[in-house]
Amino acid sequence: MTDQEPIHLFSYGTLRQSDVQMASFGRLLDGSEDALPGYCTTLVEITAPIVLATSGERFHPIVEPSSSPDDEVPGTVFRITEDELLAADAYEVSDYVRERVRLKSGVDAWVYVSATKRGHADRLEALIVAEERAFGLLDALEAAGVIAAGRTELEIERDIFTIASRDFGVREHWHDRVVRAGINALCVAGEEAPDRLVAEDDIVFLDLGPVFEGWEADVGRSYVVGSDPEKHRLVADLATIFDLVERRFEKDRDITGAQLYAAALEEAQKRGWRFGGKIAGHLVGRFPYARSPAARDGGRISPGNQQRMRDPDPNGQPRHWILEIHLVSPDGTFGGFYERLLRGAQGA
After folding, report:
1. What is the pLDDT of residue 80?
2. Residue-number span of the structural domain to which 312 is assigned
3. Residue 112 falls within a domain, yes or no?
4. According to the UniProt record, where is the region Disordered (predicted)?
5. Is the domain of 177 the same as that of 307?
6. How far is CA 152 from CA 63, 132, 159, 198, 336, in A?
7. How much is the pLDDT for 2?
8. What 3-state class would DSSP assign to 348?
9. Which of 40, 129, 180, 326 has the most beta carbons within 10 angstroms of its beta carbon?
10. For residue 122, what pLDDT is reported?
């Protein structure tokens, strides 16, 4: 990830213990006193053997929103790495859920709060809100005219960063802002390509991963710079095929990642296109979930994933998916990309 802001984690409980820090992070964390306004503390009984062994305590504090605006929870704010944030996720049991908050000092930080206060519907709604803001960013980029012949991919990428930061308050991107033009639109995620000048009849696609209020968005949209009818047909088919594949997901509650990937290939072929992606999507959640081990393990819509997509995560929570449609012309000379959240009947 580029342009990464420092990660702050607020702890009011056992993550402040030196033995827990050494077991979880392999080092002692540096922190400063702070407080979480508008919350109060209660206790939760811990039954996970590894957590009991690490903390040495059967009852752990847990926070939840308070009815009194005067309440606050004292604690310590630590500056940590992304890997350490994932390690903290692994330490906390399913009674806790990580949320983005603003501390008394004004610092924005992660904190683990009571999971009973945020259900499946709330998590899905947070992802939907993040996605809607990401599509708003795409609309703003269109209105600003950043996609035009004669501009390089890198110039467009720089404009995306500027507008995202200035107009949408984006401080984190869970993946690099991707701009692909012309033949580069055949490349899959993570595949390097030389910076290309946008030509008069190119397809250009944008693939954005902004983080809003701690939730990952992942949106992609394609644009035809010129008037080539076949390129316009491909771009129009992207959303159509997305809808058809999403219906397959809605109808089959036992569908696996491999089966949905096969459905994407089938729908592309019906319309005379090749499917260009090695995967057809992935899991998404609270940042940095999409890059976490939990997301990589069974977290791809791919030929090798035989797991039911509606199976819950290790904490028993529903998982949420991004569906990607990557189409390529039969002769392999142009392609396009579209992605967004699978909203239809997500969860178990």
Report:
1. 95
2. 120-341
3. yes
4. 294-316
5. yes
6. 49, 27, 11, 6, 17
7. 39
8. coil
9. 326
10. 75
pLDDT of res. 3: 44
3-state helix/strand/coil string of 209-233:
CEEECCEECCEEEEEECCCCHHHHH
Q: Measured between alpha carbons, how far is residue 135 from residues 131, 139, 213, 259, 342 in Å?
A: 6, 6, 15, 28, 15
* pLDDT score recorded for residue 48: 84
Q: How many domains does the chain have?
A: 2
Q: What angle do CA 334, 264, 255 make, to 5 degrees?
A: 160
Q: What is the CATH number for 36?
A: 3.10.490.10
What type of residue is 221?
A: R
Is residue 347, in this structure, part of any structural domain at all? no
Cite the beta strand spans of 285-329 per DSSP E: 320-328
| Same domain membership, residue 130 and residue 65 | no
Q: How far, in Å, CA of 201 to CA of 188, rounded?
A: 21
* pLDDT for position 1: 35
The b/e string for 118-141 (b: 16+ C-beta within 10 A; e otherwise) is beeeebbebbbebbebbeebbeeb
Quick one: how far is CA 232 from the chain centroid?
A: 29
Report the distance separating Cα 134 and Cα 214, nearest Å: 13
**Structural domain includes residue 348:** no
Mean pLDDT (10-residue bins), the chain, 348 residues = 68 94 95 94 87 88 84 96 91 85 92 74 85 97 97 97 94 88 92 94 96 90 97 98 97 96 98 97 81 67 95 79 98 98 68
d(CA 242, CA 296): 23
* pLDDT confidence of residue 51: 86
Q: Which of 85, 117, 149 is the last residue of a domain?
A: 117
State residue 121's pLDDT score.
Answer: 64
* Residues 23, 68 within the same domain: yes
Boundary of a domain, candidates 54, 82, 117:
117
Contact indicator for 86, 290 with CB cutoff of 8 Å: no
Q: What is the DSSP letter of 29?
A: P
Task: Give the CA diameter of the chain.
Answer: 68
pLDDT number for residue 34? 97
